[in-house]
Each structure stands twice: as C-alpha cells, then as structure tokens.
Write a structure and sequence with these properties.
- There is one protein chain.
- The chain has 7 helices and no strands.
- The radius of gyration is 31 Å and the shape is elongated.
Length: 130
C-alpha cells in the first residue's frame, strides 16, 4: 500500500495560526473593564456575605455607592442598606449607634488631648458671667 499524505486545509491557510491562538485579542480598555467588573462582583459578595460582620458589610456598601451611613435612625436609605447587605434593620441601627459612640469617644479624647477641657479644680473656680 502506498500512503499519500495530503495537506490539511488548516495547514495551508496562512492566517490559521493567528486564529488558533489562546483566545481573542482584547484591548487594554476591555481588560480594565473586565477587571473592574470582577472587582465589583467581589465587593458585592463581601457586602452580602454572612461571614463578614455588619460593620464590614456596611463599609463595603458605602464604598460601592459613594455614600455614608446616615446617623438618623429613621432615614429612608437604611432599608436599602439592610437589603443590600443582607442585614436586619436592627443590625444597621446597632452599627449607627456604635459609630455615634465611637465618634463621641473620639471627640472627648481629642478635647482632653488638646488641653481644652477644664480640670475639676478649674471648673469649681470658673464662674458664669451674665
């Protein structure tokens, strides 16, 4: 038997090597867009994950939406935050209270550090005018 090897069509097409590469060639903007989309998907997963405590989930929500958690306990956005983070409204309120107490504690600490607070002896000698 005489074996004849015939060239295959893909071997004779000069452009076939380019088409058989690892995948389509993407522009830098397409790659960056895909990276941003992947990052957003990751952040949304972190925001919703029950493995993360409420403060982490709320901080991620704030970052994604460019908004801060309001201090008003009756603010209408709190329900949206609760749904987006898969927290209860009570958990969102607890984070609001925790932030308020930290802010108050920091304010007192800063006042004490700056020397603006009066000592006990100074308070007793301070008189109210008018």
């Amino acid at each position: 038997m005489n074996m004849v090897s015939w060239p295959l069509a893909k071997d004779t097409d000069p452009g076939s090597a380019q088409r058989q590469g690892p995948g389509p060639i993407r522009t830098r903007s397409e790659v960056e867009r895909e990276e941003r989309a992947n990052q957003r998907r990751h952040e949304l997963a972190v925001q919703r994950s029950e493995l993360n405590p409420p403060d982490v989930r709320i901080r991620v929500w704030e970052k994604l939406h460019g908004l801060r958690l309001p201090s008003d306990l009756a603010h209408p956005i709190l329900g949206v935050i609760a749904v987006g983070t898969r927290l209860t409204l009570a958990e969102v309120h607890a984070e609001q209270r925790a932030r308020a107490s930290r802010c108050t504690a920091r304010g007192e600490t800063e006042t004490e550090k700056s020397g603006d607070s009066l000592s006990t002896s100074d308070r007793s000698t301070t008189h109210r005018i008018g």
